[in-house]
Amino acid sequence: MATKASRAAARLMLAPAVILLLGWMLVPLTMTVIFSFKRYLPMRGGDLGWVGFENYARFVNSSAFWPAVQSTLIIVGGVLLITVVLGVVLAILLDQPMWGQGIVRILVIAPFFVMPTVSALVWKNMFMDPVNGLFAHLWRFFGATPVSWLSEASMSSIILIVSWQWLPFATLILLTAIQSLDSEQLEAAEMDGAPPLSRFFHITLPHLARAITIVVLIQTIFLLAVFAEIFVTTQGAFGTRTLTYLIFQRVLESQNVGLGSAGGVYAIILANILALFLMRIVGKNLDR
Amino acid sequence: MARAVTPQRKLINTAVAWMVGLLIFFPILWTILTSFKTEATAIADPPVWFFFDWTLDNYRVVQERSDYSRFLWNSIIIAGGSTFLGLLIAIPAAWSMAFVPSKRTKDILLWMLSTKMLPAVGVLYPIYLIFIQFGLLDTRIGLTIVLMFINLPIMVWMLYTYFKEIPGEILEAARMDGAGLREEILYVLTPMAIPGIASTVLLNVILAWNEAFWTLNLTAAKAAP
């Protein structure tokens, strides 16, 4: 349908986005790669020359590296599992006929509008505080000893906070997808005597496949970079130091840019392994 | 989809959904309630629910101590500004990919998304240096630009998906009637794409509003949201 002129115009309109993004990606990336091969301590002498792969070796061999990769993957995996499963359940629930549907939907979606820093503070001080938190009150009410959540069950606590934030997003996307499901198909299956569970697995779930892929893809991108929640709650202590947080500490707290940059390159590699994996799934689903 | 259900079924649905909804909303509700309490009531054991002396003191104190409204204003300007800038760049790009697709359109789209896969920490220090170089550190404009870049791929993607759903025949009809490129975008496409653009704007404002990593690392006193 496109004429030659409109094709040229289209290229021209695409150009700013592509050029800007290319610059945004390439310039800092190149600098990071260069720094990663240097001994670079801004506060203690600045650029101290090339060191080859020393930073890479040091970063991988530091005792904090593998635990950091592990906790990153646990957080991403845990939150994805919780939000997708609960998201599907919630989406189906919210799609049922009921009174006050609009209000319930707003209630469920509300957490997405709370800044991560704020929600982390709220959870930390008002719910998980071992003395004054609501959980502590609840535990005492039942005669149990309050748990100091963020130090004793640090990982689960962070996964809980992050899941609470992202559940609305998953629910919203899945709800939109479910609404486009043809209800006659379900009714036909019902009449043919298909029990609810097999209706769910054979009709609803396949219909949601594409929406689930999108949820997983977008959430993974953001979850890999979870930062505020950890910064506010545990500051990376109690086994919650993710790769992002570890690099942040190397660069800004110990002012070792070379080492931090090497860590950055590792983070990029990890993200790209995950991305490649996800892109293949999405690419497949996009064509449908 | 309004399927016919028995009133009993509807009642159960309503009860369950409201319970779940309130459970999810509870932390926000509790925050709002606590904000009206005095320090002593806030940590009372057992917790008090509704029957306490409601006070606005906390709101006054937060404004006096930290000039809250200025930070709020920063947030609004930065979230709004980055979204607006992003739209200016993303709409033409999404338009061109949706209506004049080429062989490489899908690759470009995936590549754009892949720039989001670049972890922020990986490029934190270079951006920091560039900001110092150009005097952008701790300024609203600097943060606006960074947030615009961060969310640009998502914006292009969302807009692309929405534009794609607009039938191409309508554009052809407009072109037959002599509409130029400008009229086509302004009078045909934009009105049809308003819902899509609106939800893109909404998501983007939220993402910019929620952004903490860059905000924390690139600002201090003046531009902190």
Written account of the structure:
Chain A has a domain at 65-240: MetI-like (MetI-like fold), CATH 1.10.3720.10. Helix content of chain A is 75%, strand content 3%. Chain A has helices at residues 4-36, 54-61, 65-95, 101-109, 116-127, 134-141, 149-152, 154-179, 183-191, 196-224, 228-233, 243-253, 257-286; strands at residues 38-41, 46-50. The radius of gyration of chain A is 24 Å and the shape is globular. Chain B is mostly helical and 225 residues long. Chain B folds into two domains: 7-62, no CATH class; 67-218, MetI-like fold, CATH 1.10.3720. Helix content of chain B is 74%, strand content 0%. Chain B is extended and about 70 Å long. The chains are: A mainly alpha (288), B mainly alpha (225).
Helix share, percent of chain A? over 70%
What is the approximate shape of chain B? extended
CATH architecture assignment name of the largest domain in chain B: Orthogonal Bundle
CATH topology category name of the largest domain in chain B: MetI-like fold
The counted number of beta strands of chain A is 2
Distance from first to last alpha carbon of chain A? 22 Å
Listing every helix as H and every strand as E from the N terminus to the C terminus, the arrangement of chain B reads HHHHHHHHHH
Q: Outline the biggest β-sheet of chain A.
A: 2 strands, antiparallel
What is the overall number of helices of chain B?
10
> Number of helix segments of chain A?
13
Please mark out the parts of chain B with pLDDT under 50 across 5 or more consecutive residues, or reply none: none
Would you tell me the overall average pLDDT of chain B?
76
Layout of helices and strands, plus pairs?
The complex is a heterodimer of chains A (288) and B (225).
Chain A lengths: L3 H33 L1 E4 L4 E5 L3 H8 L3 H31 L5 H9 L6 H12 L6 H8 L7 H4 L1 H26 L3 H9 L4 H29 L3 H6 L9 H11 L3 H30 L2
Antiparallel strand pairs in A: 1-2
Helix pairs in contact in A: 1-13, 2-13, 3-8, 3-10, 3-12, 8-10, 9-10, 10-13, 12-13
Chain B lengths: L6 H29 L3 H4 L14 H10 L1 H32 L5 H12 L7 H10 L6 H25 L3 H9 L4 H30 L2 H6 L7
Helix pairs in contact in B: 4-7, 4-9, 5-7, 7-9, 8-9
